[in-house]
Amino acid sequence: MNHRPYTAVLIVPTGIGAAIGGYAGDALPVAKAMAQVCDRLITHPNVLNGAQLYWPLNNVFYVEGYGLDRFAQGQWGLKAVHQNRVGLILDQGIEPELRTRHLQAADAARATLGLTLTDYVVTDTPLGVELRTAHSGASWGTIGHPDSLLRAADKLIRDAKAEAIAVVARFPDDVDSVVLDNYRHGQGVDPLAGAEAVISHLIVRQFVIPCAHAPALEPLGVDDTISPRAAAEELGYTFLPCVLVGLSRAPQFVTQAQPQSIWADEVDALVIPQTACGGSAMLSLSQSNTRIIAVRDNTTTLNVTPEDLGREALTVNSYLEALGVLVAHKAGISADALRPVVSPLTQACD
Questions:
Q1: What's the rounded Cα separation, in Å, for the pair 121 and 157?
Q2: What is the pLDDT of residue 2?
Q3: Is 345 inside a domain boundary?
Q4: Which helix (H) or strand (E) holds 294?
Q5: For residue 342, is it within any domain?
Q6: Are residues 153 and 232 in the same domain?
């Protein structure tokens, strides 16, 4: 008997200090495991990006956060592609030597990985990224010249026929030393992540095209006590390789049904940290037949649970347990049947 593909969404929100997924691609093992369980897994760059480390997965859809929200709302669908032409935007504020390092990374992706990139564009003015921290401890940021970013993207899409956009913006090096030190040692919040999301959201919202961002920073000094979870960001001059790989096969957004496009009503399960359930995608999917699986031990700086929102969810202790729930759900087996005690049926009340 044929069954429709089992489809799950994995979300670890950006910039909220998630114990798993709050660092340099440290949620990628979770995605790799889920991809073995699901026929289709939809997730976002924060989960899959590991600076110069990445892992191509044929059944995983690399979807930017704003686009994922629109997908969950049922307004956009996802259409798989074999290959995207990736356009590269470089912030004019990047110094010449650091710019060269990023261009070398892009050329290496073409020569070594066989990716298709268009000619690159430098913004007509420095983007002016500034970093901020919310009272909750979550990171966010602003762009001084978003119009320059949009002009660069428009040029790549219009003139170079880019089908996805990679952005490298110059980020401040003078990040709070305590915050940065905590992050490098596996504690606290990624101080850059929130601002990165702002950049990609802007392009996806304006052009309905896949986009992801890599910050340009001067390399940090060597520290032999760095946490393994943050170590991927210590490996070189650029975080660009994982972005180019992800965008090379990122699904295109569609606004009308097309053959083999995926829509929100096909999502069987959403896996999300238990305390980070206030986002748009979760709120949208929780109003459908999607099974919400909340992971308790992926702690965050937030404290918004499904119960706080009046949403029904199955809370599990770990991603290992979540994988078991996905296996049972895909097999059509009630999770209650796998427990030592099964409660008897009761009569429904009038």
A1: 11
A2: 61
A3: no
A4: strand 291-295
A5: no
A6: yes
Say how many Å lie between the first and final Cα of the chain, rounded: 38
Domain of 283 in residue numbering reads as 7-80+254-337
Q: Which of 161-165, 234-238, 331-335 has the lowest mean pLDDT?
A: 234-238
Q: Is the pLDDT of residue 123 over 60?
A: yes
Residue located via tokens 């994982």: 242
If asked whether residues 112 and 175 sit together in one domain, one would say yes
Query: Is 111 found in the same domain as 161?
Result: yes
Cα atoms in the 13 Å half-sphere on the side-chain side of 240: 30
Do residue 241 and residue 109 come from a single domain? yes
What is the b/e burial string over 304-321, where b = at least 16 CB atoms within 10 angstroms of the residue's CB?
bbbeeeebebeebeebeb
User: Into how many domains does the chain fold?
Assistant: 2
pLDDT of residue 19: 95
Asked whether the beta carbons of 169 and 99 are under 8 A apart, the reply is no
Checking if the pLDDT of 192 tops 90, the result is no
Residues 6+ apart with CB under 8 A from 256: 77
How far is C-alpha 289 from the geometric centre of its chain's CA atoms?
23
SS3 assignment, position 286: coil
Query: Per-residue pLDDT tens for 217-272?
Result: 988 888 899 899 889 888 888 999 999 999 999 999 999 999 999 999 999 999 99
Q: Which of 247, 274, 306 is the last residue of a domain?
A: 247
Give the pTM: 0.95
The answer to whether the CB of 210 falls within 8 A of the CB of 204 is yes
Q: How far apart are CA 214 and CA 138, in angstroms?
A: 19
